[in-house]
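Worked example 2:
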Amino acid sequence: MVKISDPITIRNMHVKNRFGFPPMLTSSSDLEGRPTDKTYRAYEQKARGGVGLMTYEATMVDPWMRGGTSAVIGRDENIPAYKKMTELVHNHNVAFGMQLNKQGLIFFTIAALYNFFGIPAIGPSKVDLLHSTSGFQELAPAWENTVKERNLEIKELSVKEIENIQQLYAAGAKRAIEAGFDYIEVHSAHGTLPSAFLTPYNNKRTDNYGGSLEKRCQFIIETIQKIRKSIGEIPPIFVRISADELVYDGLRIEDSVKIAKILEKNGVDCIDVSQGVILRSPFGIEIPSYVERGSFINLAAAIKKAVDIPVIGVGGINDPRMAARFIEEGKVDIIYMGRQLICDPETPSKYFNNQFDEIKYCIGCLQSCGSICIYDAYSGQNYQELTPSAQKKRIIILGGGIAGLEAARVSKLRGHEVEIFEKSDKIGGLMPLIAKEYKKQEFMNISNFLEIQLKKLKVPIHLNKDLTKDEIIKLKPDILVIATGTEATLPVKFKDKPNVITQDEAILKSKPMGKNVVVWGLDAYWKGGAETVLTLNEEGYNIKALMGSNTVVASIILACTGRRIWILQYLKKNKIPIYTKAKLIDVMDNGVKYLDADENEHFIEADTLVYCGSRVSDGKKLRDEFKGVAPEIVLIGDCKRPRDVKAALEDAQTFARKLN
């Protein structure tokens, strides 16, 4: 039985184990498209953590590309910066490849979002642009008007243009090998230009590059052939495909099995199996917590049964034991763990050393994954080694939420004496509440990790302790940290109405709720009701409306496209009425009165209004009350200002790292 710790050979390339890190954008390149110190820090952390194979992020082969944050291998002068990158990674005995990409419809759409229309939308055929970007249209409602007003359309590539693009891939591959990369991967998934040739809804050509499945593979076959001629016989060539594009008219697994066989026959050494299309079904790429961990592995398993070359599987896997099981079951040859290795780069090493309680497990929030993980603002691109403090301080922390726990953990690691006092009977703050919402149980990973670490560090945590000023004075702190979090509140005019309850009360069922519900608050997490609607709907409540004063739904996770489009599609599928730019006027016994975006008054019959609005903190009040109990009083987390998980943990880290 093959194990995840076993080495594997791909063509002639030795890989020390079967943990892999996939190509994921860091957007950390300089204006010339070269890696920067931030890039080096991010990749070296992963290499140091015990992974066997890593693929560098999608790197553009276009020579003209400048002025953004995309990686570029289209010019010879960029080679030295990449050579420094490969040397750093090779110091840790990691097989390191580069994924090649070409400006296409994805790049055009993103550029157009920022009102830059100097780049044409190119593709195999002149098909309906709105259809090819239907998911993007759902995320950005103004996109349809932009397309129509500017007469935007896809430009069909000529045969000569296709040949020129293939030569760009070949030249980029040669530069990558000269820079020290061990292998080349052609990105033919997620809606990239090569994948557009493969998929039937984007390729309507009638020449040698379109029609039958075999002809739709012609672009990628010729590209591989040119790359092989350019780089010689030694380096392996990988191809990444979307085995299921997760749209009704796209590639399905039966198509992709045939594509994989064609690729193997034409010299491809490894198939990297992904899924989804970023402009139509991004939840297959940016996989939210609503999708079960490892649920896409059967796509890779189906392809592995059909080919004799190695196959890589991916799909939101955050537990190395699950990864190991998939390898042992013969489903795949290598497991990519992208966001998990961003969350905790040392996951492979911790697995090999049986340190499972030391692993930070990804929660699937999809926030900041390219640059850092929300667990740690000083990770990834911002990595800073933790060093001992010069002066030992006695630190008393009021509040056992994630900000207080993280401040205690990092302070203790730096050599300080720390105690935590929590007025309730449990730690974790809002995390246990958030984790009760629909398929968000993994948000508890953060507080579970912190609880385990603080126990190991022997940091005292006192529950059911609401300290007085005199009690704090007796503890003789050098620093008092106030991390008491926030509480949900209602507008004054609704506080005495029994049929108006807070988001917290709705989730915990701590107050009576009627069957017919209106949810106020369009955002996500605890700042809004988008995910609370999912939760209540799944529990059997009749959601009469989701409304709020915001202009869009779930704006706080605007960049988390996989998470946000899943929410939007759920709301649409379940026919939940949504009202943006609304104004709440009154709540009566039998319903809710509001003004729409045009100031027209409406009434919705309902039993209960769930108010997901602002939260209040007593942090500043406590700071004034406890003035003089310690030489220094610090506010961190939500009690400083209500924000989110990322901000709370960043506050805690910054406080602890700045201690002398």
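The first helix runs from residue 37 to 48. The first strand starts at residue 8 and ends at 10.
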